[in-house]
Amino acid sequence: MKTAGRSGGTRDGSGTSEDSTSEDTTHRAGRRVSAPRAMRRAAEQLQELLGRAPESVSAVKPTDNGWQADVEVLELERVPGTTSVMASYRVSLDEEGELLAYERIRRYTRGQIDPRQ
After folding, report:
1. I need a labelling partner for 98 at 20 to 30 A (CA). Which of 4, 54, 59, 108 fits?
2. Is residue 45 classed as helix, strand or coil in its secondary structure?
3. Tens digit of each residue's pLDDT (9 = 90 or more) over 35-60
């Protein structure tokens, strides 16, 4: 199965690029992406899966295998906006910023203050 790579080349099932000029695979192979890049990738990839635009990334931290990020998503819009239903998703990324897993860890109303703090 082939999927479009971010650089415009195609990738085969093994994950290798058929486009030998692919900057993505050549320059990033084996390197951990930066925290800002990991945050952007977490939000982008979660949006692809959920079909909802993330509102913010509330946490990002390095792990032994890549990155972990918490992403805030509007799940149900209500009026007034303070009663809208939000969700926090925990996203695991590999060192290159590719999504490995995600899970919803919390649902809350937008106006709710976190009692844990």
Report:
1. 108
2. helix
3. 999 999 999 999 999 999 999 999 99
Percent helix, strand, coil in the chain (nearest 5)? 20, 40, 40
Residue reference for tokens 């509330």: 58
Q: Which amino acid is at 58?
A: S
Distances (CA, A) of 11 to 22, 26, 47, 93: 10, 13, 22, 19
CA torsion sign for 62, 40, 113, 86 is negative
Query: Other CB atoms closer than 10 Å to residue 48's CB: what's the count?
Result: 9
Read off the pLDDT of residues 5-25 as tens digits, 9 standing for 90 and up: 333 343 444 444 344 333 444
- Tell me the helices (H) and strands (E) count for the chain, helix number first: 2, 6
